[in-house]
Write a structure and sequence with these properties.
The protein is an alpha+beta fold. Helix content is about 20%, strand content about 40%. It contains three helices and 14 strands.
Length: about 210
């Protein structure tokens, strides 16, 4: 008798919107990244010749994920990014890489950073791609991720913590807490296989 009651309770909660199927991000296929990664790098370098952080992005080790093909996050590491370069960061910021998104911007409490504050790459008039230029600075024993977009002022500072991950992927991203109703998600950024920090993203109209 107990199992039918539990099953009925779950069905009722689901009907009331209390229980929702968890939405998971899917990896962008390697062949797609191989095809479009170099185009993205060329586009960034052409349209933003003087970015707020002098990043030399590499498509060779780019990774990306999408959510139901509506939102996407791609990470393009700086060619010099390693755990040691993060360890050596001080007052002078160390370039980390670029995060390019599809229809996502930084979440600020109940709103997102609007389009007029974003560096937006125009992909042949078909896609508009928000860009975030990343660097690391040292503050004593601590390391902080600085996030830039349009202009020379950081729009977000994220504390980093020591966390071992895949060193073969210098700049990695993991999407979690995906809420398709509120159009928000969290992105954990891994640096050099040794540090990580989390940023919040939300849907943006461009």
């Amino acid at each position: 008798m107990r199992k039918p009651l539990i099953a009925m309770s779950v069905l009722l909660l689901a009907a009331a919107g209390v229980v929702r199927a968890e939405v998971a991000a899917e990896a962008i296929p390697p062949e797609v990244i191989l095809q479009f990664g170099p185009l993205a790098v060329g586009l960034i370098q052409m349209q933003f010749p003087n970015p707020p952080v002098k990043v030399d992005p590499s498509a060779d080790k780019a990774v990306g994920y999408h959510v139901q093909e509506a939102y996407a996050v791609m990470a393009l590491p700086d060619r010099s990014l390693t755990a040691k370069s993060v360890d050596d960061a001080g007052d002078k910021e160390v370039p980390v890489g670029v995060i390019a998104t599809r229809a996502l911007s930084l979440q600020e409490k109940d709103s997102v950073v609007s389009g007029d504050r974003l560096a937006v790459a125009d992909f042949n008039g078909v896609f508009k791609i928000p860009l975030f230029f990343l660097s690391v600075k040292g503050n004593g024993a601590n390391r902080e991720l600085e996030v830039y977009s349009k202009g020379g002022k950081s729009i977000l500072t994220v504390p980093l913590k020591k966390q071992a991950s895949d060193a073969a992927t210098p700049l990695n991203v993991h999407l979690s807490n995906i809420d398709t109703e509120k159009k928000r998600l969290d992105v954990t950024v891994s640096l050099g296989g040794a540090y990580e920090g989390t940023i919040n993203l939300g849907a943006v109209d461009l």
